Amino acid sequence: MPRRLLKFLVLLVLAVTGCAPKENRIVVDALEDSARPRQFHERFDDAFFSFDGRDRWTIVLHSRRPAAADPAHDVEQILILKLFWRPIPGTTFADSTQTDALITYGLITAGACIAYEGAGFVYFSRSRDGTRLVGSIESSNLAPDRKLGEPADIFGRCRVTGRFVARRDFSKVAELVSRLNQRVGPPTPKREPPPAAEPR
After folding, report:
1. pLDDT score recorded for residue 25
2. Beta strand 158-168 with 74-83: parallel, antiparallel or unpaired?
3. Which of 41, 58, 164, 197 is the most buried (most CB within 10 A)?
4. What are the respective helix, strand and coil percentages of the chain, to the nearest 5?
5. Residues facing residue 44 across a β-bridge
6. Burial degree of 183 (CB within 10 A; 0-12, 13-18, 19+)
7. Residue 171's domain spans which residues?
8. Is 138 in contact with 7 (CB distance < 8 Å)?
9. Does residue 191 lie in a domain region?
């Protein structure tokens, strides 16, 4: 059984049984130094999702904490996953290069902001009542894009993976996406990820 299909089935069981992970944890592998990549472990306090009539899903993870270097100032993190198609277990073949989502990772401080952008592969399952998603970021490749001021480029080119549990909240999704765009400007136009491959 393909690894991605197995993971999807595990997530589906977790969502149905209520045994989903309680935290939103993300791992960032900074790839600028390929010989010694740095790894960052981030925890997000909240995760929300929304969707439209064309089965396009937006998932937003959010946190705000005192900066390690200067606890008097906060660092806000906003991770946006925009999915344009959904893998279906047993019918969708996905290789290691397949993507189904555009990803934006924003770091906001009082005087500066940076947004890392790219594409990745995201799996999720929805609870029976439709109010919750359990999912994971399987793979992604991001790079620094939009900026405000002179932010520290902490990650550079990076790979983001992790897991999340999101609740349905259309207003919070719109609020957080708007907040990031107001700080760094509108997103750079990007080509949507390709549609799902034919079943094998």
Report:
1. 96
2. unpaired
3. 164
4. 15, 45, 40
5. 24
6. buried
7. 3-184
8. yes
9. no
Tell me, what amino acid is at 23?
A: E
- Which residue from 119, 80, 87, 105 is spatially nearest to 7, judged by alpha carbons? 87
User: Does residue 29 lie in a domain region?
Assistant: yes
Would 116 be classed as within a structural domain?
A: yes
- Note the pLDDT tens digit of each residue in 119-146: 999 999 999 999 999 999 999 999 999 9
State which amino acid sits at residue 98. Answer: Q
* Radius of gyration, alpha carbons of the chain: 17
Cβ-based neighbour number of residue 199 at 10 Å: 9
pTM for the model stands at 0.80
Predicted confidence (pLDDT) per residue in 78-93, tens digit: 999 999 877 655 445 4
Residue linked to tokens 């472990």: 41
Q: How many domains does the chain have?
A: 1
In a domain, 195, yes or no: no
| Residue 59 β-bridge partners | 49, 81
Q: What is the DSSP letter of 199?
A: P
